[in-house]
Amino acid sequence: MDTGSQTPKTIPGHTSQAITEVGILSHLHRYGWRSTAFYRVLLWGPVPAGVRFSVPEVWPGNPDVGRELLKGHFCFQGECHSVAADSGVPQEASREWLAWYHGHGWLKDIRALASSEAATCAREYLSVWLDDNALWSELPWKPEVAAERLINWCQNWSFLCQENATSDNLTKALRQRAGTDARHILKATPPPTSCFERLHTIKGQVYGAYALLGGDGRMARALSRLELEIATQVLPDGGHIERSPERLTEVLKDLLELRALLKAATGNTFDFLQNAIDRVAPMVRALRYPDGGLAVFNGGLENDPIWLDQLLAHTETTSKAPQSAPHTGFQRLQAGDIHLVMDCHKPTPAGHLQHAGTLGFELSIGKQRLFVNCGARKGQNDPWRTALAATAAHTCLSVNDSSSATFKLDGTLLHGPQTTTCERQDIDQGALVEASHDGYLDTFALTHHRAIFVASHGIDVRGEDRLIGTGGNYFALRFHLHPKIKASLLGDSQGVMLRLPNNDVWWMRSSIADIKLESSVYLGTYGKAQRTEQIVISGPLSGNGALIKWALTRKNEPV
Q: Quick one: CA dihedral 274, 279, 280, 281, positive or negative?
């Protein structure tokens, strides 16, 4: 029998390719039963008439970005693609860009133009999206992406469905898809290990229950789930379980939007939500430098200072930034113009943003960053991702060019330090942090101890890095410099002169003679990598560990 001419059987609703019977099991293994037509039958239900109340728009869009969107220029985190109203998404787009596109976060920027042309354009984009995504496909149906899309639809509902400004067919299609998405995310909560993705999906569940579907039982369950998740993810010191400063701002944004939504829906401000905001806001302040940007740790970047100002202004709390965050693991040392943030905690299994940067630190002199970590990239296919997660990409010490922690391809923790210690002393002369980790204990029988002292007069920083144990062949202590810093070796080969953009001069000296300047890279902001330099202090290990002392001192005299 000639089987080559037979038409392959397909799974209904899969738009990317026909799946033969042979591939059904592998398809289900990869995408799960929620990709099947049977699951979509479970999502049938009453079509919501629209939003049940006016959903607050907490953050105004950017009209400049909106004007570019009218031209079809869709940009996210430095990645830009052209999208026409009558064409699909670009094939070359990254997964992160596609998740943003399918989440419809760009709607608020078009709305900011407040014109009939903008409304018509937004509805054209929406109409095409609804047609192209009428059936199941993997990324648009991811719970956190569907939740983001539903949130943006609710916040922009009156803009998308203005009276006499859109066809009945588009309005009906939006209502039907919004109801389907709301029921989908209520059934598809990500696992606890997904952390922020889980919290963001639960935020979408609250929007779907309160703003669209209604029902006392449904709303109560969504609210209870939200309260439990916030208690799990927001730590007592206000940090987030994923330990990324940038991720913490995303959590705060969600908390503020939820507060506004529930206030509009019920007239109440829920204590568990307000208490979380009151804890998170000071921690965000603690992880900012005088330039307004964030410390660059654990998959996070600097972010936009103007946006961060707006975010904190909405918290309506003026609590001071804590100097010590024992649950999250960050220490902040500040004196004069010196602002130093140190990571004293081990990487956690939570999420997929962790880096092997335990005991790493960053240092800012006033508004100018001096010592930095190299940054981050989040996509699994980004060639920079693995390199930037390594210990060598942090202002830290490494052994045999290996990392103190290792990660899977998706960024989740594979192996890392089991024990960390951290003690802090604040005295009249300054602040001292002493910390350690055992990330090199199993591989090299070494423990890394680091002590950093910032003098109260703000012109002197002293450090000591000690390896205790018998293993390893060599160490490398790295201090990555911000791209705006000009560095040159001192004549005695035991120090480096560092010149800031304002011509202030600082000297970096070490007890180890082998000090070099090497190439480095900075990806702490969205966009292209910036070339920079790093100070590298290296030496052999001969079974007795190592002790490296270093000092950073301000020099007022002309050089």
A: positive
What are residue 448's DSSP bridge partners?
A: 437, 467
What is the 8-class DSSP label of residue 402?
A: B
DSSP strand E in 376-514: where? 397-399, 406-407, 413-415, 420-427, 430-437, 446-455, 460-469, 474-481, 486-489, 495-499, 505-510
Q: What strands lie across the sheet with 546-555, from one edge to the other?
A: 420-427, 430-437, 446-455, 460-469, 546-555, 505-510, 495-499, 486-489
CB–CB of 9/20 below 8 Å? yes
Cα–Cα distance for residue pair 459/512, rounded to 1 Å: 22
Is the distance from CB of 202 to CB of 251 less than 8 angstroms? no
For the range 409-412, what are the long-range contacts, defined as Cβ-Cβ under 8 Å and sequence gap of 24 or more? 409/380, 410/352, 410/380, 411/299, 411/351, 411/352, 411/353, 411/354, 411/378, 411/380, 411/385, 412/193, 412/349, 412/351, 412/352, 412/354
Question: How far apart (Å, rounded) are the C-alpha atoms in residues 536 and 462?
Answer: 17
Q: Are 403 and 310 in contact (CB under 8 A)?
A: no
Given its phi and psi angles, is residue 238 left (phi above 0), alpha (psi -120 to 50 degrees) or beta? left
Dist. CA 453–CA 464, nearest whole Å: 9
**Count of CB atoms situated within 10 Å of the CB of 407:** 22
Taking the C-alpha atoms of residue 475 and residue 470, their distance in angstroms, rounded to an integer, is 13
DSSP string, 292-331: SPBP--TT-----HHHHHHHHHTTT--PPPPSEETTTTEE
Q: Mapping DSSP to helix (H, G, I), strand (E, B) and coil, where does residue 276 land?
A: helix
Tokens, residue 513: 């003679």
Angle between helices 196-207 and 216-233 (to 10 degrees): 160
How far apart are alpha carbons 532 and 444 in whole angstroms?
31
- Say what angle helices 245-266 and 196-207 make with each other, to 10 degrees: 20
What is the distance between the alpha carbons of residues 386 and 409, in angstroms, rounded to a whole number? 8
The one-letter code for the residue type at 23 is: G
Q: What is the pTM of this model?
A: 0.91
- CA–CA dist 281, 277 (Å, integer): 6
Rounded CA gap, 101 and 56, in Å?
Answer: 22
For residue 461, what are the β-bridge partners?
A: 454, 552
Q: Do 475 and 541 form a contact (C-beta atoms < 8 A)? A: yes
Q: Are 361 and 204 in contact (CB under 8 A)?
A: no
Question: pLDDT averaged over consecutive 10-residue blocks of the chain (559 residues)?
Answer: 35 40 51 67 84 92 95 91 78 90 96 93 92 88 96 95 65 93 93 94 98 94 97 97 97 98 96 97 98 96 95 92 96 97 94 92 98 86 84 97 90 90 96 98 97 96 97 97 96 88 95 92 91 97 94 75
Strand partners, 550: 463, 510
Distance of CA 251 to the CA centre of its chain: 10
- Please give the pLDDT value at position 492: 73
- 3-state SS, 172-237, equals HHHHHHHHHHHHHHHHCCCCHHHCHHHHHHHHHHHHHHHHHHCCHHHHHHHHHHHHHHHHHHECCC
